[in-house]
Write a structure and sequence with these properties.
single chain; alpha+beta; 2 helices
């Protein structure tokens, strides 16, 4: 995978589409977890949300650059 992609003559990091896709997936997972009351069982919901996003993005970036 190239390190940069050209969008209308402007160079963007190649992880930008991965970031956007993971942000949408994270939003869906976060909404579902909140709706089912999962966050009432978590010690620190904000820390859990951050670590969930980092894990999802790291996994996707690792797969994309493998």
């Amino acid at each position: 995978m190239p390190r940069e992609i050209s969008i209308d003559g402007m160079f963007m990091p190649s992880l930008l589409p991965v970031f956007v896709a993971i942000a949408l997936l994270y939003w869906l997972i976060d909404t579902l977890l909140g709706r089912f009351g999962f966050y009432s069982h978590v010690w620190h919901p904000a820390l859990f949300r951050l670590s969930l996003f980092v894990c999802l993005f790291g996994l996707a970036a690792g797969i994309a650059y493998q």
